[in-house]
Amino acid sequence: MRILICEDSVLLREGLVRLLEHSGHEVSAALPDTSDLLATLDADMPDLAILDVRLPPTYTDEGIRAALHIRHSYPELPLLVLSQYVEERYASELISTHTTALGYLLKDRVADVTEFVASLEQIRSGGTILDPEVVAQLLTRSNHDDRMQRLTDRERTVLAAVAEGKSNQAIAELLHLSAASVEKHITAIFQKLELEADGTGNRRVLAALAHIENQGNGTQTGTQPRQEDL
């Protein structure tokens, strides 16, 4: 797989280059900012692009806005947003409107190199990989919506795990529940959010985010997801 990297930290950028090449992939370009990003894509389209959220010159939202622009201009290009931050406004728009070949992972929560590389391959294949913390923050941001208020703490936890791509059995093991209980929670989530379950885990969560995003933008929050009682 040929991968483009757009990351301002030279240490992380070069580290990603070495990691990807060691894993058998080719880095088609390693850019420190978005100034040459579109020209590079026009000249040499990769199989996947990795972008940070906060890039020069302002270090605010250049990367996530570039990701949105890329999705409009090159909708078939798989994207991974890899950042320390959840840029809630643009992240919600990106996740709500583009449901395939997309990932949003938090750097500090990537704990396993093998899983990270596997995530890239899953995104390349059209999958969706979302860090559950990203989902939790987006759901918290939208909690003014009455439908989100209907979810219990346990249902929010299950929803975040579904968004991470976990199977019902994996969620059951993670939360020490039976598979039947997990299925019951998932059914309840979509009933409360007035969504039809379509059998595809990540797509269902993305549909929920798209649905609640229509209620409008809220203020950013750093609220952490609440702890659940077993």
Q: Would you kindly provide a written description of the structure presented here, covering whatever features stand out?
A:
The chain is of the alpha/beta class and 230 residues long. It folds into two domains: 1-130, Response regulator (Rossmann fold, 3-Layer(aba) Sandwich); 131-230, Winged helix-like DNA-binding domain superfamily/Winged helix DNA-binding domain (Arc Repressor Mutant, subunit A), CATH 1.10.10.10. The protein has helices at 10-22, 37-43, 62-73, 88-97, 113-124, 132-141, 146-149, 153-163, 168-175, 179-192, 201-213, and strands spanning 2-6, 26-31, 48-51, 79-83, 102-106, 128-130. α8 (153-163) crosses α10 and α8 (153-163) crosses α11 (201-213). The longest helix has 14 residues, at 179-192. Residues 197-201 and 214-230 have low confidence and may be disordered. The modification 4-aspartylphosphate is found at residue 52. Residues 144-214 form the HTH luxR-type domain.
Keyphrases for this structure?
6-stranded parallel β-sheet; globular; 50% helix; alpha/beta; 11 helices; Arc Repressor Mutant, subunit A; 230 residues; 6 strands; 2 domains
How would you summarize this macromolecular structure in one to three sentences?
This protein has 230 residues and is of the alpha/beta class. The protein is 50% helix and 12% strand. This is Response regulator transcription factor.
Give the helices and strands, then pairings.
Elements: E1 2-6, H1 10-22, E2 26-31, H2 37-43, E3 48-51, H3 62-73, E4 79-83, H4 88-97, E5 102-106, H5 113-124, E6 128-130, H6 132-141, H7 146-149, H8 153-163, H9 168-175, H10 179-192, H11 201-213
Parallel strand pairs: 1-2, 1-3, 3-4, 4-5, 5-6
Helix pairs in contact: 3-4, 4-11, 6-8, 8-10, 8-11, 9-10
